[in-house]
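Q: Could you write out the predicted structure for this multi-component system? I'm mainly interested in how the pieces pack against one another.
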Amino acid sequence: MLKLIGLGLSLEFTTLRSIAELVNCDEVVIDSYTSAWFPSLDIVVQALKAMGKSVRIAKREDLEGTATKYLIDMAKSKDVCVAVPGDPMIATTHAALVVDAIKQGVEVVVVPSMSVINAIYGISCLQSYRIGKIATVVRPKNGIVYEYPLHVIRYNRERDLHTPLLLEIDLEKGYFMTPREALEILLDIQHHLKLDVLSEDDKIVIIKAFGSRTSTIVYTSIKEVLDGIAELEERTVYTIIVPARRLHPIEEECLQNIGKIVYRYSHIDIDLIKLLNILSKSANR
Amino acid sequence: MLKLIGLGLSLEFTTLRSIAELVNCDEVVIDSYTSAWFPSLDIVVQALKAMGKSVRIAKREDLEGTATKYLIDMAKSKDVCVAVPGDPMIATTHAALVVDAIKQGVEVVVVPSMSVINAIYGISCLQSYRIGKIATVVRPKNGIVYEYPLHVIRYNRERDLHTPLLLEIDLEKGYFMTPREALEILLDIQHHLKLDVLSEDDKIVIIKAFGSRTSTIVYTSIKEVLDGIAELEERTVYTIIVPARRLHPIEEECLQNIGKIVYRYSHIDIDLIKLLNILSKSANR
């Protein structure tokens, strides 16, 4: 059996189902490259090792292309689990792994979890019916500029929809795009295309490292971000939401107060080994 | 302090953070009317009562309009928690409560969780970048037919996007719209408007009661649903996703196999009281 288990955004945003599935694995492979996870995947590794599980941290090349053959073969005789920060099926590479395994007759179990996309709906003050297509802002590569996110914002704004923007991360190289970098890229594209989609006075929502100890949500103007806001310069995961030009009164009031809503939580000292043991005794497939 | 705590889609999809927050409440009010929750909210009530907490199940009139004054006043001197199936901020009524509380100087903590919207991204085989605006299908009321969802599907399909459709539920009256009813409503609207958005041969994704013991995901034609599929006639929560006409090859392959991906899980016997106690000892604000 092959299980893809979402770990949510952080240890404390992991579900009971995901924890219960983790203890029923013969081999655990932890995807360390598609999403960030707080405080650190080492906690999961240590807890599973303490229970006598075989566990290893995988890099991109371990979970893509021909490397998946090894995993799928192993899943024919053992319960192999791929634990994924966030939601396992958001990344196309995992969906492809699932399809390959099924084609080879392996039973596949998928356990969804909260991802950054979920957080956009839950913590941005914006109404779910007005959230449009998502885009990712990436750095120009080999001279190629990805203009697509600006077109998505334009398209959504023309239809009075909000645009969630994921910012490029490269966990293997330790790169996290900051909101300032993302806005500079978008404004460069706009300048180059002679469009008028974003103005420096536009206010945007920025979600920083949700689920971590330094998590924060800010509602501020593009200009202020470009001028530099210290807490938004830290290299970590960010999501920007560019709201529609017209806000619903409750969206507006909520956004005006978003800095006062507490989304950064008190410390809980989670004994993962104890939890794994409790849920292990009560789970059986 | 006022805390809005998401309970996710079911007991097993509750996060450690939500459980840890629940034990630190003086008064718990459980919203029983915005979303379904599996197996039953009584489990939460019983566990919290066993810990000596004051807890009650709230109806719509207890959490809207003037009734919120009572909650906000109480939150000035105590830790009052509103526990909400799914994600607390998806419902506009909860966002309004948060804003009112903040305006009165009450500290507000919000704990997001998975909602049905999150599940659309995680378990539909469809790529997150291609998911368009969401709509809800409701029954005609007082002779008024809500044509809006058909326009949203048309709009999304013209732009090659998938359309998630939430189906009307009325938990207080025990009403859950079935996929067949929803499609009949949409086809009636289409007929009336002389549009050509949906054809009976179109294949759609139906998510049934995710998180429950009878959960299932089906990829089938509109015609087959209209003809009657027994497991989709049960009165419970459904989500339909109308895919774009053109699918990405991995979406297509994943959908062809979606019936083989296991999203209905083995039983885990969760001792909520024990979990509450463990997380209670380790949490402090």
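A: Regarding packing and overall arrangement: The longest strand of chain A covers residues 203-208.
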